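Sample entry (319 residues):
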Amino acid sequence: MSNAGQTRDRGMVGRAPWIAGLIFALAAAVCFASIPSLARLAYDGGSDPLTVAFLRSLMGSLALVMMILIFRRPILLPRKAWPLTFLATLSWFVTNVSYLAAVFYLPVGLACLLLYCFPFVAAALLPLSGAGGLGARGFGAGLLALVGLGLALATVYGELDPQGLLFALLAAAGASITVLVSRRLAGLHDVFSITVYVNLGGALLLAGALVPLGGFSLPYAFTGWAGLVGASAFYAVAIVVQFAAMGLSCPGRLGPRLGLVSYAEPLLTIAIAAVVLGELLAPVQFLGALLVTAALVLLAWQPQADPQRQGKVATTSRD
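Predicted structure, serialized as tokens:
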């Protein structure tokens, strides 16, 4: 085989993990984007946000535990990671419950757009943890997101339930805290294992909240059961596939791009809500959603470095 053929084959083999990682990342985004519409089906069939949140946390925890056992990942947390893991559990609990409650009161697409304020809030709070500030690009992305949210909400703002708006903003605040805490935890222990504890802790908190509130609200209609089970199953699949994408990605090239793939979730959520629930946005609202998504990409975008230079850096690091 010629040198050119060998080089081409090596390139195809080298790209395979990146392509697989990208496919898994897209699959995870679709699964996450399906959950709000399935949750709404569960509500319409007689369930409530706490019941949906509990079952999806439980199924997600079971899926992650199985993955840990299969791949023999470390399961015990070091003592130094306990405080931050507990804080991450609380913030994730707030995010989980608040987002699903927002979907109960608001159109699914608008609830998702409000949730996705969290990257901008987290970026604005980064200096508090000693990291860099937003910078000109981040500031511009934030302004673009505000314009997009204004377009998405302006025509229906007076019709939106204030409780739903409050829950959506609480979800964004909780997600921002989760992101900041996770940055600190990443250097203390295996992220996969920490996610198990966060989900299990969230399920326990939800169980504790359900007891004084009268227990589970199980659906009375088939569509409600389909939504409840579907939202839980899609969540379990989503987090497993997401970790698979992270494992297959190449830190030098695809890794930074996986976050960009996840920012397709608002548009996917809007599309799935249109198909499943018949929720259609006005053209100006959809334009707002496009601007918010563009702002998210602008905020997270990292210019790709020269692959040859990356290879030299990687080689030096390994040595």
